[in-house]
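From the pipeline queue, job 12 of 40. The input is one protein chain; the requested action is below.

Action: predict structure.
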Amino acid sequence: MFSFFYHYNDRFMKNLIPTITVSILLGLPNTLPAEDFLMFSGRAIEIWDGDSFTVRLTEASRQFLQHYLTPNEYRSGVIAIQLAGIDCPERSQNHPYWQQSRTQLSRYLNNQHLNIQVEVNRSGQVNRNATHFIAVVRTYRNSIAINHTMVASGWAKDDYRFSFGYPYIMAQWEAMNRRRGIWADAQQYHAENEFRMRLYGTEGRRPETHTYPEYLNRDGGKRGQESPRQFSQQANKEYAQQPRWKEIPGQTRQKVPQFKNP
């Protein structure tokens, strides 16, 4: 079995309650506080794998982000982006399908202008790690976030730890049931579906839904060429809906390996 799907926390899995029902409801919170986001622009210049790539910032965005950039990032105007809320096969761990996932992301980016949104917490810290900004990204040609389209293509999955909620969960459900991308592999499909059935059937451990930044173009110009700004985003009720994860009778109840850390 491929290692891509074996990164779940053991303690979390021990708390999951297996279910034998055919359909299960996931309860998500109805209200979430507003969150602040930074919006800026650039072009992708190198794609690492299915959810990571580097971006050359526009000059206006470079100046706008100066407070959040390392000295090297500010001098070069180049930053690394990781797509928020999703999980892809990792190139650094040589996961199966990482090349196909990378190719799919390359098709979506295609050297277009990018609109990039990154969360800022109450302490004024931007959502990034030592190397990457964690972002929602849209292209010049498509208002739907690449994060979502990667899940819908079957070459990424909703990251239950940082999920944006209903549209992402149901995009994965549809991709799996249509056997798109990774889910054409029967072992990957059955193992993932078994995990999701148990995950969403556990009343005490329901995944948290994170606020999803909508696309707001106040300039009236082209997407990916907007003036950089900070804005506040309320939780969208669409993302807090209760998705239904339905099992296909006779298709998924197979003996599958236990999930574990790599």
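Job complete. The longest strand covers residues 35-49.
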